[in-house]
Specification:
With about 450 residues, the chain is of the alpha/beta class. It is about 45% helix and about 15% strand. It folds into 2 domains: about 1-175 and about 330-400, D-Maltodextrin-Binding Protein, domain 2, CATH 3.40.190.10; about 175-330, Periplasmic binding protein-like II (D-Maltodextrin-Binding Protein, domain 2, 3-Layer(aba) Sandwich), CATH 3.40.190.10. The protein has helices at about 1-20, 75-85, 105-115, 125-135, 145-150, 150-155, 180-185, 195-205, 220-235, 240-245, 255-265, 280-290, 300-310, 345-355, 360-370, 385-395, 420-430, 435-450, 455; strands at about 35-40, 60-70, 90-95, 120-125, 170-180, 210-215, 290-300, 315, 330-340, 380, 400.
């Protein structure tokens, strides 16, 4: 029950601050939006911000390497790191990103061979915790100001069960559907408010010779993480529904899960021709070139789309629920930065980590990389209108929740199949016509019943 309380607190606090911080733009992105928007933070809204901690500068000139899965953000991080260097001129931090699908395996190999960067992005929950438990990530229990600058709820995805932190949280991300406003207007389509309206819009676009959705499956994580886990909160009932699965009150093949797989099947006729051969990048290019009207994607893609500068108006809308159901949003605690336990420059690395708690960093990060929402107790002014559109989802929805399998279900015992892999396989099987929605849900339940105790005794 303690884990449930922490998760409920985390989601509640994110929603409270999101409501206070968001506006609701409907226009396509522009270079100079009229009004800035505050970022969501996971902090007590009545609590006065604590004084920023003073980092102890390194005693000599040092160079640190920062690893990341965000290749697209190299220029933005160059600007951020330049600001850090200006404040600490004896410390140089070099940004060294890895292609996102390869990041976990590459980092693990680097750590095992002693070639890992001094600092690196850490994924939330089990993936990051596994590296900490293996001794690869240094404890931050004595990092100055961490508990004051960032709330307990926001720190929780990067802390042990006893609350020992091992990374500084920097970002939450949102999920939604990017859409070509020009194509919608040309075909007389309004933003869909229900799943049924979304499918009707897709049918109308297809009849007009337009590919409705750009998503493909060659990079299998896309259809699972960006599509399936965007749909799930609406079908299972957000946080409360997800916790019912984790607690064994619902089985993973119940009617709600079958309905989620049914929506995947519903989408199949509206995916691009040859979608099984399309990479995530291919899908993005279909959208920005105006060859597909919509794409399920996350707020992390805002910068990439803006750099591609589509020659049409575009924005985002929330994935709609089935008629009669409440709206829930996947708003996920995404990234933190940790320190390599074997770093040869721990003093300088801790100085950088302490700087990540500052107002200066939150302000730069939120605006240099729109769509990654700072989670510190500070409330920087964000200027990007598409980022504001994503934040508006939280205001309009009944609730928000993290990605379905992230808590407790990402790691499985040796010889067993984790929930991410099982769900990914089932989604692909439905798209290929190899399983119907019920069979897909049954395969997920069977995989989890092999090792996850609540799934073994869940209520049918």
């Amino acid at each position: 029950m303690k884990g449930l309380k922490v998760v409920r607190l985390f989601v509640f606090l994110l929603l409270v601050i999101s409501i206070a911080a968001c506006s609701t733009p409907t226009a396509a992105p522009t270079a100079k939006p009229a009004e800035p928007t505050k970022a969501p933070v996971a902090a007590e809204p009545t609590k006065a911000p604590a004084a920023e901690p003073t980092a102890v500068p390194a005693a000599k000139d040092v160079t640190l390497v920062l690893g990341s899965w965000r290749v697209d953000d190299a220029e933005a991080w160059a600007n951020i790191l330049e600001a850090f260097h200006a404040k600490y001129p004896n410390i140089t931090v070099k940004f060294d990103p890895t292609n996102p699908p390869d990041y976990n395996a590459t980092l693990r190999t680097q750590l095992e061979t002693g070639n890992a960067p001094d600092l690196f992005f850490v994924r939330s929950f089990a993936t990051g915790r596994e590296l900490f438990d293996a001794g690869y990530i240094a404890s931050l229990k004595d990092l100055p100001g961490l508990s004051d600058a960032i709330s307990a709820a926001s720190n929780a995805p990067w802390a042990t069960d006893k609350g020992e932190p091992y990374a500084v949280p920097i970002a939450a991300v949102s999920h939604g559907i990017y859409y070509n406003q020009d194509l919608f207007e040309k075909n007389g389509i309004a933003i869909p408010k229900t799943w049924e309206e979304l499918m009707a819009a897709a049918e109308k676009l297809k009849a007009a010779g337009v590919t409705p959705f750009a998503n493909g499956t060659k990079d299998a994580w896309d259809i699972n993480e960006v599509v399936m886990m965007t749909l799930l909160p609406n079908l299972v009932g957000g946080l409360d529904g997800r916790m019912a699965y984790l607690n064994g009150e619902r089985c993973f093949n119940d009617a709600a899960m079958v309905a989620a797989f049914q929506e995947i099947k519903d989408m199949t006729p509206y995916l691009p021709e040859g979608f099984t051969a399309l990479t995530y990048y291919d899908s993005q290019q279909l959208f920005v070139q105006g060859k597909a009207a919509m794409m399920f994607d996350g707020s992390w893609s805002i910068s990439g789309f803006e750099k591609d500068a589509p020659d049409f108006k575009w924005s985002v809308f929330a994935a709609p629920p089935p008629a009669g159901k409440d709206q829930y949003i996947s708003f996920h605690m995404d990234a933190a930065i940790g320190m390599n336990a074997a770093s040869k420059n721990p003093e300088a690395a801790r100085t950088f980590l302490t700087w990540l708690e500052s107002v200066e960093f939150a302000e730069m990060f939120g605006n240099e990389i729109p769509g990654f929402f700072p989670v510190s107790n500070t409330q920087p002014q964000l200027k990007d209108p598409v980022a504001a559109a994503f934040l508006s989802f939280n205001t309009q929805a009944k609730g928000t929740d993290i990605r379905f399998v992230w808590e407790k279900l990402l790691a499985a015992p040796s010889g067993q199949v984790d929930a991410y892999t099982a769900m990914n396989n089932a989604v692909i099987a439905v798209l290929k016509g190899e399983q119907d929605p019920q069979q897909a849900a049954d395969s997920l339940q069977t995989a989890l019943a092999g090792w996850y105790e609540p799934a073994k005794t869940c209520k049918k």
